Amino acid sequence: MGDQELVAALYPQLLPFRGQHYWFVVDRVLGMLATFQRDWERAAIHLDEAVTTARRENLRPEWAQGKLREASSYWVIHPIPI
Predict the structure, then answer these.
(1) pLDDT, tens only, 16-59
(2) CA 56: distance to chain centroid?
(3) Which site in 22, 46, 48, 73 is 20 to 30 Å from 38, CA atoms measured?
(4) Contact of 30 with 11, CB cutoff 8 Å
(5) Residue 25, SS3?
(6) Cα(51)–Cα(66) distance, integer angstroms
(7) Residue 77, pLDDT score
(8) Using CA atoms, how far apart are residues 24 and 4, in angstroms rounded to an integer?
């Protein structure tokens, strides 16, 4: 199974756990998977939810990871012209 197939298989399995956190915020992982699939709109929604969950639950490392992923995906969508 290649990466694309693995991501396509994992995403729907994690989707029912949106808004939850264990040792990671599920929405951050969903956002990463959507980014890998180049589904920027879905990625932005999940990453925003991840940051919101992390802030609400005072999960500082997860908040930082979520903000980093948001910024990374933003620059992929809106590259700086050189």
Answers:
(1) 999 888 888 999 999 989 988 999 889 989 999 999 998 998 98
(2) 17
(3) 22
(4) yes
(5) strand
(6) 5
(7) 66
(8) 22
Residue 42 belongs to what H/E stretch? Answer: helix 40-56
Rounded Cα distance, 70 and 4, in Å: 21
Q: What is the CA radius of gyration of the chain?
A: 13
Q: Are 50 and 25 in contact (CB under 8 A)?
A: yes
Q: Sort 28 into a burial class: Cβ within 10 Å, 0-12 / 13-18 / 19+.
A: buried
Measured at the CA of 68, the angle between CA 63 and CA 73, to 5 degrees, comes to 125
Q: How crowded is residue 50: how many other Cβ atoms within 10 Å of its Cβ?
A: 30
Q: Tokens 């999940």 sit at which residue?
A: 46
The answer to whether the beta carbons of residues 31 and 73 sit under 8 Å apart is: yes
42: which residues sit within 8 A by CB, 6+ positions away? 31, 34
